[in-house]
Amino acid sequence: MRFDIITVLPGLLESPFAHSILQRAQKKEIVEIHVHNLRDYATNKQKSVDDYPYGGGSGMVMQIEPFANCIEHLKSERDYDEIIFMTPDGKTFNQEAANELSGKENILILSGHYKGIDQRIRDIYVTREISIGDYVLSGGELPAAIVVDAVVRLIPGVLNDETSALSDSFQGELLDAPVYSRPADWKGHKVPDILLSGDEAKINHWRHEEALKRTQERRPDLLE
Question: Are strands 128-131 and 82-92 parallel, antiparallel or unpaired?
């Protein structure tokens, strides 16, 4: 699977993709992640990619030409299953969307900045608009990294224990049950006896009941 990310701040994405699961996925050659500097596709001497908005108003708007130049260049090399724009007014990202995207082959992500990007880019090229929550960040780089992380861990072969991703919170529309590790008794705070019983059926039942209880308490909307 391949991700291409267009950004005006490529350095902001160096760390998220250079550690842990995402790093291992790339070393295993299961995933490719390529970050493209939007300024490389600017046509002016200053390599600027933004300008004042038509109609007035505060802030600067990312121009159409640099994005179009970069997108067309990348599209000439391969077909993209999705061209995603990270934006606060997009559809809220969730586990179902991550599951769906994990089955794609090539994904291109546009990271906005400043006041936003020229609407014509969204109209002409973008196939899906995604938000990671009802708040505004300085740009789309960190949201793009979140989407990549959530999708990559679902690809077969990325995690050492392939059943791990299937038991995560939200996979079964429930939050995950509490988890424990050694020691079994820490200063009088004990692990539930059922988890030490070795009875897999009873443990699975306990985990389901605890997941249901936690979901009812914290995210009852998921049960609707």
Answer: parallel
What percentage of the chain's residues is helix, strand, coil (to nearest 5)?
35, 20, 45
Half-sphere exposure at residue 125, Cβ-oriented, CA atoms within 13 angstroms: 25
Q: How far, in Å, CA of 214 to CA of 221, rounded? A: 12
Placement of tokens 């699977």 in the chain: 1
Using pLDDT thresholds of 50, 70 and 90, give the confidence band for residue 165: low
Short-list 113, 127, 54, 50, CA closest to 85: 127
Summarize pLDDT for 103-157 with one digit per residue, the tens.
Answer: 999 999 999 988 899 999 999 999 999 999 999 999 999 999 999 999 999 999 9
Q: Are 218 and 178 within 8 A, CB to CB?
A: no
Set out the domains of the chain in order of their start, with CATH numbers: 2-152 (3.40.1280.10), 169-223 (1.10.1270.20)
User: How many whole angstroms separate alpha carbon 223 and alpha carbon 212?
Assistant: 9
Angle of the 20-27 helix axis to the 141-152 helix axis, nearest 10: 60
Place of tokens 């640099």: 66
